[in-house]
Amino acid sequence: MYYQLYPNFKGVKTEISPNKIHAKNLVFIAEESGEVIGFVWGTFVSYGISKYGYIEELFVKEEYRRKHLGTQLVKQLLEGYKKLGVWALFVMTKEEDADVQAFYKSLGFMKSKGLWLYMEW
Prior knowledge:
Layout: E1 22-32, E2 35-47, E3 50-60, H1 69-83, E4 88-92, H2 98-106, E5 110-111, E6 116-120
């Protein structure tokens, strides 16, 4: 049934079970003078022919916000995901957090169902 979801898949079709799900964490840290001032934490998931990523957390110390550090961290994560062959990236936001949604949309994310935003390439 999994391959019925991807009728155009041309590769070798092998058995796929939940035991074949591989997930890895990617973490990028921003430092200044040896002090951590921000980080982004993502999870990479490989399941069958699908490879996608999530942004689990993005944090920048308040005094360093609005200086494009968050943007740089997310772009670093994107590059890491692209090297892993990821085709889409997801992030969940709060509905009432318009600033956070605007931030991700400025990077190319689009609104999905519920609280999710996503980006494909």
